[in-house]
Design goal:
The complex is a heterodimer of chains A (320) and B (248). Chain A is of the alpha/beta class and 320 residues long. Chain A contains eight helices and 18 strands. Chain A is 28% helix and 27% strand. In chain A, the strands form four sheets. A seven-stranded parallel β-sheet of chain A has the order 7-11-6-1-4-5-12, with helices on both faces. Chain A has a five-stranded parallel β-sheet with strand order 15-14-16-17-18. In chain A, strands 8-9-10 form a three-stranded antiparallel β-sheet, with helices on one face.
Chain lengths: 320, 248
């Protein structure tokens, strides 16, 4: 009956979203008067999960599972859910979890609600609040099936500490064959990804050319931020496609989003408006982005950005 | 190769979103509907297969008669036949169930959908459809090549991309990258005239129980006004980000 949460890891270490979904699962379990079981696939040290309210961990370890595969992973989570008699499964909104959750939903005959931003507003009927219309609205939905899957939006529920000591149990599910084979993975190392970043520094055509991105990277480095760009910039080939954020690019749900030389087309805003705090730097006081911003600076990026980087360096030195 | 492209009929991004009937329904007054952008990339890639490798391309939508102009637009872009399953799109599962029936009946090899629709953003239908029909599934797909029954695809992952090989039947959750934005086609007059003659078949729905229900909609709180800061006073920005916004 426990709530089952899939806590994702990468190279043995938990992703930050793992703790957010664990926190969420704890909130659901409290509402339902039950416990939280996490399932991990090739994670090393599981003790941290206890900090976020997990009571039991089903540890799966198998070198065949080193590369993520949606169908295989979905099947393993299904086996865990059946073993635990789970009524609610909690997953994140990472690219991987959004890939596997619909497969899991069909496998478990479970209703699935994605983009959930808050703890259930009611346990019966099971009602959740989700974003829709690319963050222009919320929907309150009920999940009407016996088994339910909740996909939690990134950076919406947050981390909630709830100390318990998680007990580990080895779990050896059957690993089914699968028709999609990963041939190669091309992943930037040593850079913060847009998906994981708490701060994203993004720049647009106002930068005038790809040769001017050094100052954007400097600013991102001081903040430990990921770099991103607007659609025209990726279309022009100034920056790689993977950095394009917006409606047809990657979504951003950061704590802080700094937009430099981006006018703020509605398609761009649709992709980034789940971010909590937005800073806009633009020479044009009429840029539509200012209407969506929390803090605005009308000024020349070529002057403001290097100065801001220096100020932040001083701030970091004082607060280290 | 028989290709089916799933077309969502969605409000244009620039539309103002409002609700009626006690916040239980989308107010479609003054809303312009378009082909879901992620589906449009897939449709264009399907046209490429048709022209370069030989394929038939059908398009499908689950919805009422109001979605037909969107299907006609897909025909004008070059699809051969349109199918409308005559039932409102209630939730992802119910839609996937209807599509599964269309796929089985039509014997499609490749089904291209968008990674998500820009209205409900659920990212559910393509995966559920693949699982219901027992097909392979690749989402966030940014390139796709098909050779016989083998397919090679690239998909965007957090922080990079990966290349996968798989076989037909295959369901794709497509996005920008399948083709570039500059390759998207605007229907020309000839296409629009031809589209009027092309078949648009209306199918009655099969039994499909929805698994989730909409209780009501809510608009976000209006946001506070932007705080403007002088470019000569960046200390203030740093201090606000630290003390007020608490993000650094």
């Amino acid at each position: 009956m426990s709530v089952l949460v899939y806590t994702e890891s990468e190279e043995g270490k938990f992703k930050k979203v793992a703790f957010e979904v664990a926190s969420y699962a704890k909130a659901v379990a409290d509402q339902m008067g039950t416990t939280v079981t996490a399932i991990t696939i090739n994670a090393d040290d599981i003790s941290e999960l206890g900090t976020y309210g997990v009571d039991k961990v089903l540890k799966v370890k198998d070198s065949k599972l080193d590369a993520f595969n949606a169908k295989t992973y979905a099947n393993i989570i299904k086996q865990a859910a059946e073993k635990e008699g789970t009524k609610v499964v909690v997953v994140s909104s990472s690219a991987d979890s959004k890939y596997l959750a619909p497969l899991l939903a069909v496998g478990l005959d479970a209703g699935y609600a994605s983009n959930v931003v808050d703890a259930p507003t009611s346990a019966s009927p099971f009602t959740v609040k989700r974003t829709a219309f690319t963050n222009k609205a919320f929907i309150f939905s009920t999940i009407d099936t016996d088994v339910k899957i909740v996909g939690v939006s990134k950076n919406a529920f947050g981390l909630k500490e709830n100390s318990s000591s998680a007990t580990a149990e080895d779990f050896s599910p059957s690993i089914p064959e699968n028709g999609v084979h990963v041939d190669s993975v091309d992943k930037a190392t040593n850079t913060v990804t847009i998906a994981d970043a708490e701060i994203v520094v993004s720049a647009g055509r106002g930068l005038k050319g790809p040769e001017n991105w050094g100052m954007i990277e400097d600013l991102a480095k001081v903040l430990g931020a990921a770099t991103a760009c607007s659609k025209p910039v990726s279309d022009l080939g100034w920056r790689p496609h993977g950095e394009h954020v917006g409606q047809t690019g990657k979504p951003v749900a950061a704590n802080l989003y700094i937009a430099i030389g981006i006018s703020g087309a509605i398609q761009h805003l649709a992709g980034i408006n789940a971010s909590k705090v937005k800073v806009v730097i633009n020479t044009d006081p009429e840029a539509p982005f200012f209407k969506a911003a929390d803090y605005g600076i009308v000024g020349d990026a070529f002057e403001v950005v290097p100065k801001l980087t220096e100020k932040l360096k001083e701030f970091k030195a004082q607060n280290a | 190769m028989k290709i089916l492209v799933c077309i969502s009929h969605v409000p244009d991004t620039t539309s103002k979103i409002n609700f009626t009937d006690g916040d239980t329904k989308l107010d479609t007054n003054g809303v312009q509907f378009v082909i879901n952008p992620n589906d449009e990339f897939g449709l264009t890639r399907a046209m490429w297969f048709k022209e370069k490798q030989g394929a038939t391309v059908d398009v499908v939508n689950v919805g009422g008669p109001e979605t037909e102009p969107t299907l006609r637009k897909a025909l004008a872009i070059g699809a051969d036949t349109a199918i409308r399953v005559n039932t409102p799109a209630t939730d992802g599962f119910a839609v996937a169930k209807q599509l599964a029936h269309v796929v089985k009946d039509g014997g499609y090899d490749l089904i291209i959908a968008g990674r998500e629709s820009i209205d409900y953003n659920g990212s559910m239908v393509p995966g559920m459809l693949a699982e219901l029909i027992g097909a392979n599934f690749v989402t966030n797909c940014i390139s796709l090549e098909v050779d016989g029954t083998n397919a090679k695809a690239m998909r965007e992952i957090d922080g990079g991309k990966e290349t996968v090989s798989t076989t037909l039947p295959l369901v794709i959750g497509g996005q920008k990258g399948l083709v570039e934005e500059s390759d998207l086609r605007i229907p020309n007059m000839r296409g629009i005239m031809q589209a009027r003659q092309k078949p648009l078949n209306v199918l009655e729905p099969v039994d499909a129980t929805k698994e989730t229900s909409t209780v009501k909609f809510e608009k976000p709180e209006p946001r506070g006004a932007v705080k403007m800061i002088s470019p000569d006073n960046l200390d203030e920005l740093v201090s606000l980000l630290h003390n007020e916004a608490k993000v650094i």
